[in-house]
Amino acid sequence: MTFNNKIVWITGASSGIGKSLALALSKENCKLILSSRRKTALEKVKSLCDNPENISVLTLDLAETETLADITENAISIFGKIDILINNGGISQRSAIIETKIAVDRKLMEVDYLGTVALSKALLPHFVANKSGHYVVVSSLMGKFSSPFRSAYCGAKHALHGFFDALRLEHDADNIKVTMICPGFVNTNVARNALTADGSKQVEQDSMTENGLQVDVFTKKMIRAIRKEKFEAYIGKKEILGVYLKRISPRLLHKMVLRSKVR
């Protein structure tokens, strides 16, 4: 797959992985739509990109699912078409199950799962009509195996795999592709912005995230996976071994995760 003459829509584009993707893809011969809740931050990202005349900013809030159908129509009208939707927007969570308010679980499902699903479903008729389209979904290794203190996040990411595996099967004949991107630890603000037991932000960085892949290194690997139209891509350091260990011996993976003392 080539990005040549493609229109790419990126959610969560104001920071972290989304910002890095925007900067990298702006060097390609394609047009970009950048979305998040924060227009000022999106405009800042646009100003840092190459070829800003090929970039449009469109605000959205994934938690407001009832607005996403109209926003999708607006997105299509900007350049007349969308070829690739990169579902990158979302939030994380750091708290013990026994302490976590159900409102936090609900928020993670509303944003990370239902918001992503609603946006993707709104765009689906456009992809079907064009007999072409590519969903890229930033999941997590936590969508393949779980870790302590991330229960709501793991649940939402596992749900994404179930939905998009079904979508890929249902629309294979429509030439619609799905690539699930599963990051391990990437050095972004994801931990600082993670919700705690009462719904407030953690604010502090954690050592594993800080020592994770640099975001530009991750982005290069992610773009390579998109080009290859991979079904799934596991991108990280040694933590990606957990995916394979889960298949071989879930009990051994359980013991290893406990020994890592992840927080």
Automatic annotation (TrEMBL):
PROSITE patterns given in the database record: ADH_SHORT
A Gene Ontology term for the protein's cellular component: membrane
Stretches assigned to coiled coil: none
Domain of life the protein comes from: Bacteria
Keyword tags: Oxidoreductase
Any GO molecular function: oxidoreductase activity
PANTHER family according to UniProt: DEHYDROGENASE/REDUCTASE SDR FAMILY MEMBER 7B, DEHYDROGENASE_REDUCTASE SDR FAMILY MEMBER 7B
Protein family according to the UniProt entry: Belongs to the short-chain dehydrogenases/reductases (SDR) family.
Protein name according to UniProt: Short chain dehydrogenase
Organism expressing this protein natively: Oceanihabitans sediminis
